Amino acid sequence: MMGTEVCVDWTMRLAVAALFLGLTMVITRDEEEGDLCLYEALSDTDAVLCKGLEVFYPELGNVGCMFVPDCNNYRQKITHWAEPIVKFPGALEGATYILVMVDPDAPSRSSPKAQFWRHWLVTDIKGIDIKKGKVQGQELSPYQPPSPPAQSGFHRYQFFVYLQQTQNISLHSKENKTRGSWKMDKFLNRFHLSEPEASTQFMTQNYQDSPNYQTPGAGSSEPKDKPK
Ligand SMILES: *[C@@H]1O[C@H](CO)[C@@H](O)[C@H](O)[C@H]1NC(C)=O
Ligand SMILES: *[C@@H]1O[C@H](CO)[C@@H](O)[C@H](O)[C@H]1NC(C)=O
């Protein structure tokens, strides 16, 4: 293989490199900008969480088990988009479910002092609804989009669906005051929630840390936002 590097199209080279690394990916090309979009799958270790749950954002589609691609400003757009469609095709129509979305990597995966950051907590979701991707119920913590701090690396955004066996699931007032450092295991124990029925995660990092990020004025007309 060495020394035969003639004039291989670089898209092809990336695809070959990805195959070599054992990655799954789909390449799409933005018609207007000609950007290369790489949908890269999570590592096998991070993929163990991907069990029966799909998370759809506009433009991106299902990001379950993927890195949010570094193109079309997706990593910036996801910090503004409203809640995704969360679909649990295996839901029992007559059952009731709880949806939890957390960031275990707050403020960073190497030093997760504020894990778990609670991004979304909804109870009393009807099986018949979440089966079709409709998350409707008691919103104990409204959806907060992923906004990883600059220079903090990739964060995992994890989604868990639990079978809800009891009524009146609630947060203690202390838990409700802040989203960071949530003792999720205590919450789960309190309501006898052990194993999730379904789960998934995706990963993203601060968009300004991404190689393809263009600073405003250097070709991009996007306003510069301060991530939370
Ligand atoms: C606390 O509870 C209220 C009412 O359910 C909710 O609107 C608010 O977002 C909660 N705060 C947090 C940090 O979860
Ligand atoms: C749940 O809360 C409602 C309203 O506060 C109350 O009427 C009901 O008895 C509670 N149910 C349980 C199981 O605690």
From TrEMBL:
Organism: Ursus maritimus (Polar bear)
SUPFAM superfamilies the record matches: PEBP-like
Keywords: Signal
Classification via Pfam families: PBP
Taxonomic lineage from the root: Eukaryota, Metazoa, Chordata, Craniata, Vertebrata
Chain residue ranges for the region called Disordered: 199-228
Similarity field: Belongs to the phosphatidylethanolamine-binding protein family.
CDD domains: PEBP_euk (cd00866)
Stretches of the chain forming a coiled coil according to its record: none
Protein name as catalogued: Phosphatidylethanolamine-binding protein 4
Biased composition range(s): Polar residues: 199-218
Source superkingdom: Eukaryota
Signal peptide: 1-28
PANTHER family with a match to the protein in the record: PHOSPHATIDYLETHANOLAMINE-BINDING PROTEIN, PHOSPHATIDYLETHANOLAMINE-BINDING PROTEIN 4
